[in-house]
Write a structure and sequence with these properties.
This protein has 521 residues and is α+β, with helices and mostly antiparallel strands. 41% of the residues are buried.
Amino acid sequence: MRNSDADVIIVGAGPTGLMLAAELRLAGVRPVVLERSPQLRTVPKANGLSGQILQLLGYRGLGERLAAIGSDAGALTALPFGGMHVDFSPLADSPLKAMHVPQPKLEQLLDDWVGELGAEVRRGHEVRGIEQQDSAVTVEVSGPDGEYRLTAGYLVACDGARSRVRTMAGIDFPGTTYPEVNRLGQVSVPESVTVLENGAIEIAGHGVISPGFTRTDHGVFAMGPVSPTRTLMIQVTEDTNDETDDNEPMSLAELQDSIRRVLGVDLPLVDPIRLSRYQFQARQAERYRAGRVLVAGDAAHGFPMTGVGLTAGMTDAINLAWKLAADLQGWAPAELLDTYHDERHFAGTRIMMQTQAQVALRRSDDPAAQALRELFQELLTDEPALYRLAGLIAGTELRLPLANPNGHPLTGTVVPDLALRTEQGETSVGELLRTPRPVLLVLADRPDLIEIAKDWAERVEIRTVTTDDRPGDALLIRPDAHIAWAATVDEDLETAAPALRDALTTWFGVPAPVAVSTVSD
């Protein structure tokens, strides 16, 4: 390791920065997290996790902790999409798993976890400048006790959409800020408002407001019931050319004023659980790396839809951490760190595609736009199209563009949590991925593949197991749980051997010249 104050400096202690710090510690790297706010945030910017990030957090052993602070929503049966109500209930195996977790509770969980792992989080410390050298990067910091300098091998900007570090590194952030303001509230209605069985509400002197989207000349009012039945999730969208501060707390009165302007009615609201204000952006950093500075989370991308930025940022962190660790520990292949940009920019482009499609569906209300929404919903009556959309939203349809000479359908995807059998008893893929370490999972009697992998056994754990209906003879799993290579069932060694060697070398470098042993289960 390099001689420095830290291995990696992380700027920003939101979910992305904290997830990155935890992953780095699990990989044996020393991060320091710098956060300009003196305390953990108390205003929730997001209200839950959904899709593939839940699987990845489960692989790291956080499932029980998440269950203790949130509530499992199971598979979502309906979601808003582009100003429409989409029914996902026909899907027997929906990937749209969700958990209700207010962001402050999530950040506290991650902060506790990071502390247990031994990472240092400095709150009230603001980065004022950066200086890159050939083998290190130095930041100028203003903290509670004055100014100081901190040096590390790499610097990662996780400091949000208005990232100062991204700007100082010269990374462009092109795109669009939409001329609208969105106000979101999870609130309750008092007894003076009648809640109907179908989720609609009836307001004295006004009439019935149905769940879903109500469009007026002044904006869009969206509403859906949340358990208990008198609790609602409300979003109000108004056009504006003024810039808003997403971090400025929003009051209940501000939400009610916005509802009055859009609907022309005073809606009584009480007991706010979540209040937030935001402007949608469609922006993506042109490059996720500039020398020794990298960007992740909202510093790398801004999507014009709620519910995706948090999970995308945490997945950025999981992808990046093991590659930084490999570089700092001296065994990374030459181009490994650059694959962070290749893979996560690709993933961001996929997310941008589906969220901008939602903008196109919801932003207009002329007859052509209405026809487009009607056609879209008609297409979604076909189950394959509905499943494809669910996978896009959940992130499960993402397949990294990795070398795949045998065309195995799992290569480039997140490994499923297979139930496994060993001589010691039953286990699972998730149990094997508690730390970010590569694993060669041998699912058949393939001593020939094990013999090849032994040269990498200092870095790659070799596990021989069995499972029902095996998806292949072997799976090479990266530390971020993505499958780098897979052997088909009974694949001939003539094709499997060179492909395995190529994948091992591509992702885990030249074999270390040391004696090794395997783990036989």
